[in-house]
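Predict structure. Chain length: 532.
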Amino acid sequence: MDVTRAVQDFFMGHHIPKGVSNTLIVLIPKNDNPSSYSEFRPICLSTFISKICTKVMVTRLKSVLPKIISKQHAGFMANRDIADQVLIAQELMHNIDKKVRGSNFVVKLDMSKTFDKVSWHFLSLMLLKFGFCHQFVQLIMNHLQATFLSVLVNGSPQGFFKPFRGVKQGDPLSPFLFIIASEAFSRGLHWMMQEGRIQPFWMGGNGITISHLGFAYDLLVFLNGESRSLLNFKAFLSSYEGASDQEINLDKSSILRGKAASYRKARIKNLLGMKLTDLPVKYLGVNLHKRINRFQFCGNLIKQFENKLTPWKQKNLTHGGRLILIKHVLSSLPLHILAVDLLPKKVINVLNRKLASFFLGSNNDRKKAHWITWAKLCYPTVEGGLGIRSLTDLEKAFILKLWWKWKTGDSLWARFIQARYNRNENMIPKVADSPVWRRICCVHEMASSLISTDAGGIVTWNEEENGQFTFKSAFEEVRDLSFSSIIYQQIWDSQLELKMKIFQWKIVKGIVPIIDKLQRFNKILSPSMCPM
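Prediction complete.
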């Protein structure tokens, strides 16, 4: 009852008690050996009542934000996919070398301590500009201004101090306040390009002009390298910094260059004060490149696998434990890449070998025989496998998903691709087409057989009763099939422990290491061994 009254008092505009507004700051290290404050991430631990109040405001904001936040911004927004940001960026990178006066450039902006530097005055002006009532804006300001912060040092709070700007990292409301404040950047840049003060990134032919892409504080700006355009862009950045209190970290920001002349690259570097970098470059966890993904671009993914596997190999895990880790941890690591790009076959082979060796219990000191191929382990359990999803089949299913989004979607990426490749259903790719469009063209014939279109032009997915696309049904369409057996179903439906189910499965598959099986591997057996 007291909690309910406290929340009601907050929304009636009453003063927030200090005990409710007190917030502890805990510093989370960004790496294994932090040596400066910049290598820590401050997370705020708010009180229970404070989080209830902000959660209620978030629920109200969520329904409104998609109407006021630009389509180019996808962070913290419902029904906006992070994969779309990467796909659009990849499409633009494919055209970075287009011959155009001034040359195409991409600026990767890094904002320094973004949440900590949000100006409260600027935020309130933005909220009022978007039409939020004074009462709601005042509630947000009361919440921010009543905050008292204390830093946790060795588990103990040290002192209290009041902030004068910024939003609390870890508070449910903070991400939404940040994107409202940063919408000034999106609209300002869009206006500058509409007015011709900043020349846009030239794609050639049809297409929607993309000025920038944003996901939280990760920003990519696409523009032309003409001198006047760059000067206006620099002035715009200065104006935005002055109004919002945000600060661009020039040391971490960079300029992605194409085949522009050397003097032009030097000029843009000196003008913006940022370093020049070449592709590939990492954006939202995925490498952006101009053509196809290569083995040398995937070193981080392979290293992620090794970092996960190294401590696990030192533990005496059963086959059941290893299977759970493979299905629910390791197999999910490459999904964010497979959703937007193809992995080289060499990379897939390396990952499959690591998965197979881990499941069998191999390590650097001890190699174990592979009694069954990895491909057979990737069948569903009723078909004699272990239900591990093949990376190759996942890749194919994600391409089908891209095709469906292109065919039926209304996202920024879907509209961008539809406008750029508007060829009246001519699905024969051209030499200059991007790798993403080529993949869509490759599955067009198969995907078209899986849909129906009614008289009103509404497309339905035939593999689901409700007509909606699901990744599961797409995966079933592209994977290799095998014969199902009731024996396997009985094994996996039993109430036995997982390790016993796997042992029974081994017996049925004939891969238990008995004498006649060991002789296949030229094992020298002791005469005293059991004759089995």
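Summary: The longest helix spans residues 174-194.
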